[in-house]
Amino acid sequence: MSYSARYSESLFALEPGMLGPAKPRRLDEPISVSLEELVPQRHFYRHLEATLDLGFVRDWTQAVYADRGRPGIDPVVFFKLQLVMFFEGIRSERQLIATASLNLAHRWYLGYALDENLPHHSSLTRIRQRLGVEIFERFFERIGDLCQDAGLVWGQELNVDATKVEANADLDSLVPRFSHAAKTHVTDLFADDVPTDSSEDEPEAVAAALPTGVVWLPSAASDEVGRADPPPWKLLEERRLDPQRPSSGGYMRTSDFRVSTTDPDATPMRTGSGTALGYHDQYVVDGGKARIVLAALVTPADVMENMPLRDLHWRVCFRRKLRPRHVTGDTTYGTVENIVAVEDTPRHDILDTCLQSALAARHYPLRRVRAPAVRDDAVA
């Protein structure tokens, strides 16, 4: 073929076709199609549905529902929505419902057909309050158990870190704590109009009702026996600082004498743009390829990042039966207490370089510090 023939053929190939008619919008016409056909067979949520059976949450939540009344939202659907929120990186339940309503894969995973309305976002708030923190903690631990049973937890390295989460409250909502406590106390006093008989709780009234010859023995907390030492403060259970803790060198945090009326649990924290009310999201992540989150703890921002490390570390090692060799964290965690706690754990032969550099920078003494050995078989 000559050059002119090839040139004319290329021009013909580049010649635009005829302009077609405008695309009609026939969106109100009913069609016969199922949601099962629209979701690809190899989609992620199909794999999640086949792998993770959430039927166990119905047994956990049965006690918080009434025997009669309007049927509530299936708790399995509620926890599936929480998983969708996690995997899609959604922070708002209002946005969660809007996204799941438009996404075909989300509808398929939740079990809602195209003509069914998803639950209202306000219902999720009421369900979360009804279930309580304990149910969520059990759900988190159960998912961790399933991941460990599937071999996704390496266990040789733990990564610790924290994230600042701003609260939906302004600094202007801070008021003196004693004023807020007084108003709350008065509100609680007049919340119930039924008078209570205070004499029932008095030891003298109880002693007067005892038979002749039987005396009232003093309790362990009375002055005659001596007041017992208070139990240690359980940070992981209380999720906040001990309000009765003594001050350190006369220093008092703002949260010690001021509280937010909008969000009493939120405390001031420093952010990139200044100061705001918020929380610290503490977590421990396995160092294996799957990066499984082994522990999570949300506390007010006045709980410093390095404070829960020892409790979280021991809980993970005991709960998961792990004996890690590495604990990785930034210089914030490099305190004497944290280093000693990690070092005294069996098989913690190696300390992370971040923690070592923190000790060197702060001139903290340490009984032994050894640099991490380079291993060819280390798992990322």
Reconstruct the topology from this structure.
Layout: H1 3-14, H2 35-38, H3 44-51, H4 56-61, H5 75-88, H6 93-102, H7 104-110, H8 121-149, E1 157-166, E2 174-176, H9 177-189, H10 203-208, H11 235-238, H12 254-257, E3 258-260, E4 267-271, E5 274-286, E6 293-300, H13 309-320, E7 326-328, H14 336-343, H15 353-362
Parallel strand pairs: 1-7
Antiparallel strand pairs: 1-5, 2-3, 4-5, 5-6
Helix pairs in contact: 3-7, 6-7, 6-8
The largest β sheet comes out as: 5 strands, mixed
The gyration radius over C-alpha positions equals 30 Å
Secondary-structure class: alpha+beta
Strand tally is 7
What is the beta-strand fraction?
5-15%
Fraction of residues in H or I helices: 25-40%
Mean pLDDT equals 82
What distance separates the N and C termini?
59 Å
Task: Kindly summarize this structure in a few lines.
The chain has 380 residues and is of the alpha+beta class.
Description:
By secondary structure, the chain is α+β, with helices and mostly antiparallel strands. Among the domains are: 33-149, no CATH class; 155-166 and 280-380. 39% of the residues lie in helices and 12% in strands. The chain has 15 helices and seven strands. The chain has helices spanning 3-14, 35-38, 44-51, 56-61, 75-88, 93-102, 104-110, 121-149, 177-189, 203-208, 235-238, 254-257, 309-320, 336-343, 353-362; strands spanning 157-166, 174-176, 258-260, 267-271, 274-286, 293-300, 326-328. The strands form two sheets. Strands 1, 4, 5, 6 and 7 form a five-stranded mixed beta sheet that branches. The longest helix is centred in the middle third of the chain and has 29 residues, at 121-149. The radius of gyration is 30 Å and the shape is globular. The two termini are 59 Å apart.
